[in-house]
Amino acid sequence: MTPTPAPTPPANPPAPSAAPRPDAVTVEVVELIGTVVARYHEEYEEAAGKHSLTGAQARVLALLAHEPMPMRKIAQKLKCEPSNVTGIVDRLEARGLVERRPDPDDRRVKLAAPTAEGLATSARLRESLHFAREPLAGLSARERTALRDLLRRMLGEEPPPSA
Asked: 3-state class of 5 per DSSP?
């Protein structure tokens, strides 16, 4: 049996195609999103400080106000290491804003949960954030819904059920 010769590579392989340059509107949208995010973070840090919290502590407290969760899930949502979350929860717990409790589904896992004072602090913090709420109030309900749906689509999230 005669061996089959290996295919020879083309003399001039095609150059990898460069990513298309974004159009001017795309560039402007990206810059505007960046500006919105920066302004939101700036206001969030300022509001957290008024409640004697760091921005990270305020974000953890806000997450826990929705539902108690294990440290690992908090870390996933904040895109950080679980060891960082442990320190944040320790400080919130020392202030009486958070408590650790066993997970009813798996007693080996501890959930971080807000205390009544933690929920109240989270609510006060949320109420003090005006940057996003005030400009959004200038949009109609249809425009806010369209913006929400577009942002969800950009994030790859499922659209909300039709009302």
From this structure: coil
